[in-house]
Amino acid sequence: MGYQFKFRPYQRRFLRSLTTNHGKWDIREGIILRLTDESGKVGWGEIAPISWFGSETLEQALDFCRQLPGEITDEIIFSIPDELPACQFGFESAQEWGETRLIASVLGSEFFSMPNAPCPMPYAQSFSGLLPAGEAALNQWETLWQQGYRTFKWKIGVYAIAHELKIFESLIHTLPASSKLRLDANGGLSYEEANLWLWTCDNLKENGEIALEIEFIEQPLPVEQFQQMLELSMSYETAIALDESVATLAQLAACYQKGWRGIFVIKPGIVGSPSRLREFCQQHQIDTVFSSVFETAIARLAALQLAAELSRNNRAVGFGIDHFFEQEETWLQSLWNDL
User: Fold this and answer.
1) Could you tell me whether strands 213-218 and 180-184 are parallel, antiparallel, or unpaired per DSSP bridges?
2) One domain for residues 90 and 120
3) Is the model's pLDDT at 334 over the cut of 80?
4) Are residues 36 and 123 located together in one domain of the fold?
5) Where is average pLDDT lowest: 41-45, 164-168, 194-198?
6) What per-residue confidence (pLDDT) applies to 330?
7) CATH number at residue 253
8) Are residues 196 and 233 in the same domain?
9) Is 116 in contact with 146 (CB distance < 8 Å)?
10) What's the structural domain count of the chain?
């Protein structure tokens, strides 16, 4: 099938800098795609790369879009190289959208009832709300709780471990007993620090000091220390989830082949081909948590569709991030009008 192809880059400023072990992030950049098939159906897609997480750069994605003709085919879409995983996701999502969704659902209010800020209550309970790093988390969680969130993710490995452990102690004794907490290190801990965090979490649970569930520690060590993470996962009760280690489909498959049977955090926006992701997850029945790359509602809708299809263990999806941006409905509408 042939499609008329148009694209436009975008920039969105975070309301406040997102701070992780990778540094500070102030502006989210990406590309919006529009595919129009021969019958006039329109499919929207989004390329939202994070090069420091394992995807192509924005410039590489733009170069790929610029060299394409004004009319493309399914053959072109499904032959995008693995070195461009965010492009694979964006183009395949747009192609699927054209096949399965009416454009009215995009422009209508139903589309914008998907999680935005504040997250609607029915959705929020299935979403993990992202807390800011450091002491700011102690002030942010209650607002998210009031919006309906019951699972929270807190960034660690940003400040000195002694300081973070003090904040952690305050946080776990402040959060309601029915909540869940995820700790995300973004690969920023040393082996000794990872052991200390895991031991602390296990010890709190064993001693009955907290009622809330510490669901897992996400990517405690750098990608190249896979074997150490595998060993740690077998040494402690607190679960470990891989994130940066499984940023792309090739990495995900490699970690599975090397024996990882724990939790896989999948970021659909940069993992690669949705059709191949479906095939892998359905074949191996892995334990997944689907997570955002701070995409717009366009990519989020496609990502949540994958999460609905492929999630197995009723884990909250990591898309509770919209409080980091202004409301996007008007902004997206003007972007579409320009396309």
Assistant:
1) parallel
2) no
3) no
4) no
5) 41-45
6) 66
7) 3.20.20.120
8) yes
9) no
10) 2
- Residue of 24, 153, 155, 166 with catalytic role: 155
pLDDT surpasses 90 at 74: yes
Q: The domain spanning residue 61 has which CATH number?
A: 3.30.390.10
pLDDT tens track for 89-140: 999 999 998 655 433 343 333 333 333 333 443 455 589 999 999 999 999 9
* Chain centroid, CA 41 distance in Å: 28
* 333 in the same domain as 318: no
Global pTM reads 0.88
Give mean pLDDT, residues 266-278: 97
CA dihedral of residues 169, 127, 50, 280 (deg, nearest 10): 110
Q: Which residues contact 128 (CB under 8 A, 6 or more apart)?
A: 149, 151, 152, 153, 180, 182, 289, 316, 317, 318, 319, 320
Residue 210: CB atoms within 10 Å: 16
Query: What is the domain extent for residue 10?
Result: 2-109+328-338
Is 206 in the same domain as 145? yes
Residue 338: is it exposed, middle or buried by C-beta count within 10 angstroms (0-12/13-18/19+)? exposed
313 and 169 in a common domain? yes
In the numeric block, which tokens belong to residue 253?
Answer: 């498959």
Q: Of residues 150 and 323, which shows the higher confidence score?
A: 150
**Token digits of residue 163:** 């300081």
Let me know if 155 is a catalytic residue: yes
Closest CA to 323 of 105, 172, 128, 106: 128
Tell me how far apart the alpha carbons of residues 301 and 108 are, in angstroms, rounded to a whole number. 14
166 in active site: no
- Tell whether 91 and 124 lie within a shared domain: no
